[in-house]
Design goal:
This protein is of the alpha+beta class. It is about 60% helix and about 15% strand. It is elongated and about 80 Å long. The model is unreliable at about 105-120 and about 285-290 (pLDDT under 50).
């Protein structure tokens, strides 16, 4: 054993590495955890899509420096300050959210993986699915406009903050009452997280997709817009035609039947179930290993 320790010490001394202490070990552990949480936060927000674009630009800049393109290198070096300011502007919503969490002393709870996983993987029940289909069908019959956003992995907190906070179980009666004409909450979108309505009268980003039909109003463009920047699933009921539409990943499906809506929600539900089961298997595996 002593010879093994001597051999290891000899190798480290030959590599001329600095002395490694216990504090260095914990420092590396903390830095690795912070980097992991940063990447996990980026992946669950719109910053993930923006980050992929930034990575592409960084690779292109690397190629420019590698090939010694003097003119482009000169431009890049003198535009560095502008690039930094641009990054801050682009990531402004995400940075604002982090600062607000710090101000509200919610940093620890927002970083804990178990708490965030419960929010991300929360499964809406069959009862919620039935209530959504029933409410959509009833509102379509009487041409009551509605905009319902169902959250998946990516947080919708910044859009919930634009509306009025609620905390109520999803029911067809509640949704119909919210979107009833001339009621205080009928204007805007409803956000659903799991089996609960979390906010109403929320403002959503409008899509600038030129391929969308010109006869679509603000409600449909908002439904498509939120599906372009998040992984949410949106149900839209037209006030003019009474048609039910859905938006997901920037794709709009118009004039679907309640049965088709039920099928789409079932697919979404099964997808979330698979994610939740996968997490439970990993959790169970880690317990067994322990």
């Amino acid at each position: 054993m002593n010879s093994l320790q001597l051999w290891i010490s000899t190798i480290f001394s030959s590599l001329k590495l600095p002395p490694f202490t216990v504090s260095d070990f914990f420092e590396i552990l903390i830095l690795a955890w912070l980097v992991y949480k940063l990447l996990d936060w980026i992946k669950t927000t719109r910053a993930w899509t923006l980050l992929k674009g930034i990575i592409t630009i960084v690779i292109a800049v690397g190629v420019i420096f590698l090939l010694n393109m003097d003119t482009l290198i000169y431009i890049i070096e003198h535009m560095l300050n502008v690039i930094i300011i641009t990054i801050v502007v682009v990531f402004q919503p995400e940075l604002r959210k982090v600062l607000e969490n710090l101000g509200e002393k919610q940093l620890i709870s927002s970083l804990l993986p178990l708490d965030s996983m419960n929010q991300v993987s929360q499964l809406f029940s069959d009862k919620t699915l039935n209530e959504l289909v029933k409410a959509s069908a009833e509102m379509a019959k009487v041409r009551t406009g509605a905009l319902i956003v169902i959250m998946q992995k990516e947080s919708l907190d910044e859009y919930e903050r634009t509306g009025i906070k609620l905390d109520a179980m999803v029911s067809s009666q509640l949704l119909i009452n919210i979107f009833e004409h001339n009621t205080p909450l009928h204007d805007g979108a409803v956000v659903i997280r799991g089996d609960r309505v979390t906010a109403a009268t929320c403002y959503l980003p409008l899509s600038d997709n030129r391929e969308l039909s010109k006869d679509l109003g603000t409600r449909h463009r908002a439904g498509v817009g939120i599906s372009e920047v998040t992984d949410s699933f949106t149900i839209i009921v037209s006030e003019e035609t009474g048609f039910i539409s859905t938006a997901y990943r920037g794709k709009l499906r118009r004039n679907i039947t309640p049965d088709e809506l039920r099928r789409q929600l079932t697919v979404l539900q099964n997808k979330q179930t698979a994610t939740q089961k996968k997490f439970k298997r990993r959790k169970g595996k880690s317990k067994n290993e322990a």
